[in-house]
Amino acid sequence: MEKQYCIDVIPRIQDEICNKILNDIEINKNDLFIFQLDLYDNEEYLTSVKYLLTREFSKEHKLKNPYKIYNEEEESKYNFIYNYLGAVSLKIIENYKYIDNIRGSIKDFLSLPDSSDM
C-alpha cells in the first residue's frame, strides 16, 4: 500500500504576519486582509488564489477584492506580492497565543470559494 503524506504548511501568508505568529505577537482581525485573485481564461473561470496580508499592506498597494485576472499581463502586475510572502505550519497557527483574535480570518483564508459566486 502506498503511503499518503499530509503537508500542513500554509503558504501565501505575508511574512510580517508569519513573524508575528511565530513570535506570539498579537494580531487582531482588523489588522488582516484577505486578497483574492480570480483567474480566468477569456471568460471561463479557472480558480481563485487567496493571500493573507496586513490591511496596511493592502492599503499601501491599493489592493481591491476580488480582483479578476483575464490575461498574463494583468497577472504580472501582482507578482510583487511574492516578495512579501512566507508560510506557517497549521500546528503553529493552532498554538498561536492570540489565535482567538484571528480564527475567523484564518478560516476564511483557508476556505475554498463558493462556485455559485463565479
Characterization of the model:
With 118 residues, the chain is an alpha+beta fold. Helix content is 31%, strand content 30%. The protein is built from five helices and five strands. Strand 2 (32-41) and strand 3 (44-54) form a beta hairpin. The longest helix is centred in the C-terminal third of the chain and has 12 residues, at 99-110.
Could you give the topology of this structure?
Blueprint: E1 9-14, H1 15-22, E2 32-41, E3 44-54, H2 55-60, E4 67-69, H3 72-76, E5 85-89, H4 90-94, H5 99-110
Parallel strand pairs: 2-4
Antiparallel strand pairs: 1-5, 2-3
Major beta-sheet overview: 3 strands, mixed
Q: What is the count of helical runs?
A: 5
Helix content: 25-40%
Mind telling me the C-alpha Rg? Answer: 15 Å
Mean pLDDT reading: 88
Q: Assess the beta-strand content as a share of residues.
A: 25-35%
Termini gap: 39 Å
Summed up:
By secondary structure, the chain is of the alpha+beta class. It is built from five helices and five strands; from the N terminus they run βαββαβαβαα.
Entry keywords:
single chain; about 120 residues; 5 helices; 5 strands; elongated
